[in-house]
Write a structure and sequence with these properties.
9 helices, alpha+beta, disordered C terminus, single chain, 20% strand, 406 residues, 5-stranded mixed beta sheet
Length: 406
């Protein structure tokens, strides 16, 4: 099983210049290769293969116009071509129905919020005895290690985000058998919402922290300050970084909440059931800001990743299951109910239900984790969860992210 561990970097002023040079060279190589393929497509010529682009890159280094490409590691430039191949492959797979549709590859800009370069083992990067990350033609970077790497990394990616923070992301191979948790007796259904972030089938209600809503006043002030700065000025650049850092703090805090809750649920329960939600559809309603603030998709991805790692079972049920309409006591479908109806009484058995708790119980039952009134299992055995994106961080700094994701 592959995992991605991410740690905060603290480069010096000179190392930041070297990294900026590497980011720029990788971006130019990517854009040059994309332009070559786009020109070939416009002229009706065959798709330009990677081998041809690699030879063109080698030849470009010998020219006066592109001689500065030799100032960075050649591995960084070759990996930029690999990234373009991946972008095209994802685009074509989307057209063929092998994955969700994605847009065609686009040109990169030096003003993009995220810049990154990747070093493979061929680059001969290393972790020094003093705990620093030694990168070719960049130097030894200070790393804040929040945990030990479980094995020798195969690649390292250096990332710079919009808040001017630097991270080192390592891909490592791990043995899932070593991370299995002791078996637990519990099974729980989870109903995700906005008033309460999660309501469990045992009646536990977890309030929604609403991190973005709580930070809106500070964000509004920072954004207003940014809008008053002259475009292209140094003060505008400083104000932009303040806005980016304010948003990064909100995202980090939300991620920390998701990790703490998902870890607790995984440790306490052997099986977990959740309902798939149409986040894209809900994001087009008047509740869009609250939906994005909740971050349901990221939370479910964390549950998937941690369930596989810990040997737990995660079951997803369809979004069209009438979990809010069915009485969890007798199984009678009592019809749709408006959102303002938070409690209702079953017309058949007379049981009074909390809307969210009843939905969580029905999610657990529909997933086959509970026993119906007749004593038979509602659905056959459990299905294993698929691995998705996940991450953890400590003291506000990301540290580990699951694969595939990033």
């Amino acid at each position: 099983m592959q995992l991605r561990y991410q740690f905060r970097l603290y480069p010096t002023a000179g190392q930041r210049q070297s990294l900026a040079r590497a980011f720029g060279c990788a971006r130019v190589v990517y854009n040059d290769a994309l332009r070559a393929r786009e020109d070939a497509r416009a002229a009706g010529l065959p798709f330009v293969p990677s081998a041809v682009l690699s030879k063109a890159l080698t030849a470009a280094k010998r020219t006066e116009e592109r001689a500065w490409l030799a100032e960075v590691s050649s591995v960084v430039l070759q990996q930029s071509l690999r990234d373009l191949d991946t972008a095209y492959r994802n685009f074509f797979d989307g057209l063929n129905g092998k994955r969700p549709k994605m847009g065609a590859p686009r040109f990169k800009s030096r003003k993009d919020n995220r810049q990154s370069v990747r070093f493979t083992a061929n680059a001969r990067w290393s972790i020094t005895s003093g705990g620093k990350l030694a990168l070719p033609k960049i130097g030894e970077l200070k790393v804040r290690w929040s945990r030990a790497l479980p094995s020798t990394p195969s690649t390292v990616t250096v990332v710079k985000d919009a808040a001017e923070r630097y991270f080192a992301s390592f891909v490592v191979e791990t043995n899932p058998a070593t991370d299995l948790l002791p078996e637990a007796n519990g099974a729980v259904g989870i109903d995700l919402g906005l008033t309460h972030f999660a309501v469990l089938s045992d009646g536990t209600k977890i309030d929604s922290p609403r991190f973005l809503r709580r930070a809106e006043k500070k964000l509004k002030k920072a954004q207003r300050n940014l809008s008053r700065k002259a475009k292209g000025s140094n003060n505008r650049g400083k104000a932009r970084i303040k806005v980016a850092r304010a948003h990064a703090k909100v995202a980090d805090t939300r991620r920390e909440f998701h990790h703490q809750l998902s870890t607790r649920l995984i440790r306490e329960n052997q099986a977990i059931a959740v309902e798939t939600l149409s986040v894209k559809g809900l994001a087009r309603t008047r509740m869009a800001k609250s939906v994005h603030d909740a971050g349901w998709s990221s939370f479910v991805d964390m549950l998937e990743y941690k369930a596989i790692k810990a040997g737990r079972t995660l079951v997803k049920i369809g979004r069209f299951e009438p979990t809010s309409q069915v009485c969890s006591a007798c199984g009678v479908k009592d019809g749709p109910k408006p959102l303002h109806v938070r409690e209702w009484t079953c017309r058949e058995c007379g049981t009074t239900h909390d809307r969210d708790v009843n939905a969580a119980i029905n999610i657990k039952t529909a997933a086959g984790l509970a026993v119906a009134a007749c004593g038979a299992r509602v659905r056959p055995g459990l299905v294993p969860a698929q691995r998705g994106e996940a991450g953890t961080h400590r003291d506000g700094h990301p540290t580990a992210v699951g694969i595939p994701a990033l």
